[in-house]
Amino acid sequence: MRPPFDPTLYLVTDTELCRPHPVADVVRAAVAGGVTAVQVRDKHASRRELLALTRAVQAAVADRPDVPVVVNDAVDVALLAGADGVHVGQEDLPAEEVRRLLGPDRLIGLSVESADDLAVALGLPPGTVDVLGLSPVWATPTKPEAGPGLGLEAVRELARVAHAGGLLTVAIGGIDAARAADVAATGVDGICVVSAVCADPDPQEAATRLRAAMTPVGAR
Amino acid sequence: MRPPFDPTLYLVTDTELCRPHPVADVVRAAVAGGVTAVQVRDKHASRRELLALTRAVQAAVADRPDVPVVVNDAVDVALLAGADGVHVGQEDLPAEEVRRLLGPDRLIGLSVESADDLAVALGLPPGTVDVLGLSPVWATPTKPEAGPGLGLEAVRELARVAHAGGLLTVAIGGIDAARAADVAATGVDGICVVSAVCADPDPQEAATRLRAAMTPVGAR
Predict the structure, then answer these.
(1) Per the database record, which ranges form the Thiamine phosphate synthase/TenI domain (chains A, B) (predicted)?
(2) Which ipTM was obtained for this model?
(3) Which terminus of chain B, N or C, has fewer Cβ atoms within 10 Å?
């Protein structure tokens, strides 16, 4: 059985943007503010450093078993840390291979950057992937190689097709509190944020603001 | 039980240096020339590319079960490919953690760059590591960050201490056919070569030359 996974407000960590705060401190504050899932990402860290970072983040949210901790790319690190899952991009290990290594009880997220990527993802055996990261909504300085943004209309269409195929979706790339409501309105199941939380002097308050923006006005 | 492992002439691949030849072709030729073990290394490849590369190398030497294929750094790739082992450096996942993931039936190599590194390696639980890579003998353009060379006397001393602790040793860094005999004379169990094979227009002949240089004159 997969871990609980509410993708509403999905924090992807960035070690540089968190400075001078330790990533684990930012995660703890952000979860207190309303973050529902965490992905540990550090493309500059060695695997040794990433393992230590993942364990620090897990310890920081150990009292919140409802908040899964997922590792970006590094399946070996996720296995050693006993993480709740892995998120892979189109250049990382193929999702089917990752599923073989992780077994049935972990989450797998997959980045999708186009309708072609989505078609491939929907052709995977059922249960391979849990959530698709529609990426990037807008161009973003935290991942310049991701290219120009999909825009809201493309995100809406990708989410519709993904949902028809039974997969959850999150949108990522350039999302801040001012834009969160517009992204939520596309029908995605959640938003991923990086700098909107990591670079904020008050990550808890930033998460609270983002979470409020995700909630329909009538429900607040 | 660990796979057979004769470290006498240990080829570490370099995709760039092999060009225009595919790495797998170079490996096949080098094994025909006398290479006894292969490590797939490509620090520029994505994990997806490294998995494909590892499988291509395994296929190229499938008729030589006596020649193990080991993956540099990427434990997840080694697991998926069913490789014979993993080689880790001081920045990669700690050897004890790698042993947990790989189980008892795979080889683990560990790079050792100083007497301090060696002392740590010798303090690991017995059976954690199979072979130590004494690195670098000489400064090498294929790994500039490895720093200045240990020199032959330091290699001799590190090998002596490692053997007293029951571990195999290979020397790596700047070794070519002209220097192979001097390195063998330090008492190491084998030599690692990269450019001396990968950059040679005739990898089979290069391996034959290196293998001959490793053999004491009276035994030729």
Answers:
(1) 9-197
(2) 0.91
(3) N
